[in-house]
Specification:
Blueprint: H1 8-17, E1 37-40, E2 55-58, H2 60-66, E3 71-73, E4 80-82, H3 91-94, E5 95-97, E6 104-106, H4 109-118, H5 123-134
Antiparallel strand pairs: 1-2, 3-4, 5-6
Length: 146
């Protein structure tokens, strides 16, 4: 099954599994300014398929920056590190929040490489998190962080 777009029941299942949040930057879809995408963790161009185990809910900003990447340099060591894989890893193992909850912190080589490649702290997302924080919608609870 190598379809171009994931729709219908399958998309709904992916959205529910992600609890309606981008599986990378953790922004909620229901307040987003653009529709989220179903992203191929291992891109189709690199042999990835459209099975549920290879699909993640992603905001347009994260999806566009990840594109076909599966690894990136760790900004600390400069060594290549695999990007975060939402189906195989826990978000909390690789990421944390700054004291004011506006920025994602990379805790591991994978976390740091993912923060850098996907620019998880793009200024518009940081501002969005600050607004969400003031209305009690951020940070996501532990059950929503994967």
């Amino acid at each position: 099954m190598n379809e171009k777009r994931v729709r219908g029941k399958k998309r709904q299942e992916i959205t529910q599994r992600a609890q309606g949040r981008c599986e990378y930057c953790r922004c909620p879809e229901y307040i987003g300014t653009q529709a989220f995408s179903v992203e191929h963790i291992l891109p189709r161009d690199k042999g990835g398929n459209s099975d549920l185990g290879n699909l993640a809910l992603s905001c347009q900003g994260c999806n566009n920056r990840k594109h076909i990447s599966t690894e990136a340099p760790d900004p600390l060591t400069k060594d290549l590190a695999p990007l975060f894989h939402p189906r195989q890893e826990s978000w909390r193992d690789h990421f944390g929040w700054s004291d004011d909850f506006s920025r994602v912190l990379g805790l591991t080589p994978t976390g740091r490489a993912t923060v850098e490649r996907l620019q998880l702290n793009r200024e518009e997302v940081v501002r969005f998190r600050r607004v969400l924080y003031t209305v009690g919608e951020h940070p996501p609870g532990p059950e929503e962080q994967g």
